[in-house]
Specification:
DUF2189, transmembrane, 0% strand, mainly alpha, DUF2189 domain-containing protein, 285 residues, membrane, single chain, globular
Length: 285
């Protein structure tokens, strides 16, 4: 029998009530009382990365119309942040805002992980599965890891602001034109870009290391944040080349998706999200 949502109010109340039923479990899931041992980590090859991307694209084709509709939120949010930066004399943070989205990619893709998980298990799946994450028994640990990613994103913006002050130093920028002239026409601007890219790489590397498989692991197993992060670190340490190539694929894909007013993220993020689930399945036993 086909399942229906019912009226929006009853649907929302039912799901919110279910999510609150897990609040008492949050402290326990953060520490992961059920499973404390690290899962077995497998060796990865570059072919595994290609296979994961192909499987991710296959999932995207299956849920394409639903995902594109849901993922319109990403460019809308990005554009709103850019407008706020313009109005708040923070034009020097527009690029860090956009590039820093990669730090939040694992959080934004949690719903895609759940859709791929349900499809793999043969369960009926549509875009509403994204909201099933809030009913996960491990929602406490998932939220804690998400907060960590947001904290890293905030720290990156703070670092970008400090780098700007230490190089160009004119704050607030007189105008967008003068800011661009400083960036591309002065030694200080060149120094800002070089230092900024180096620091941004460090932040991206940290997020890659702690989250390459941690969110999918938290969705599938009753482990806590320490085990999830340790497993991600183990995956990276055991597979440094595939992990770095994967990080490069993610960075390039998000950059390409961000160029046309962030509209490409409606396609890029779902594919990467689904592909990350399949990479997790290959990496962890």
């Amino acid at each position: 029998m086909d399942q229906t949502i019912g009226n929006p109010v009853s649907w929302a109340v039912r799901h919110i009530s279910a999510s609150f039923s897990h609040v008492g479990d949050m402290a326990r899931t953060v520490s992961g009382e059920e499973e404390r041992e690290l899962p077995i980590v497998n060796s990865l090859s570059l072919q595994d990365l290609r296979d994961a991307l192909a499987q991710g694209y296959d999932d995207f084709k299956t849920f394409r119309s639903d995902l594109i509709a849901v993922c319109t939120l990403y460019p809308i949010i990005g554009i709103c942040l850019a407008v706020m930066a313009f109005q708040g004399n923070l034009v020097h943070l527009i690029v860090p805002l956009i590039t820093g989205f990669a730090l939040l990619g694992p959080v934004a893709s949690v719903g895609m992980y759940e859709m791929s998980r349900r499809r793999e298990a043969g369960q009926e799946t549509n875009w509403l599965a994204i909201f099933e994450v809030i009913r996960s028994p491990n929602i406490g640990a998932i939220l804690v890891l998400a907060v960590m990613c947001f904290a890293l994103f905030a720290a990156w913006l703070g670092a970008a602001h400090i780098i700007y002050l230490m190089t160009i130093g004119t704050w607030p920028p007189a105008s967008m034109g003068s800011f661009l002239a400083d960036v591309f026409g002065t030694p200080a601007g060149s120094a800002m870009m070089i230092v900024g890219m180096a620091v941004g790489f460090v932040f991206a590397l940290v997020v890659l290391m702690i989250s390459i498989v941690s969110f999918p692991l938290l969705l599938e197993r009753r482990v806590g944040v320490p085990v999830a992060i340790a497993t991600s670190l183990h995956v990276v340490s055991e597979n440094p080349v595939p992990a770095m190539v994967w990080g490069l694929i993610v960075a390039i894909s998000l950059t390409i998706g961000s160029i046309p007013a962030l509209l490409g993220l409606m396609v890029v993020l779902p594919i990467l999200g689904h592909a990350t689930w399949h990479l997790y399945r290959k990496a962890v036993t």
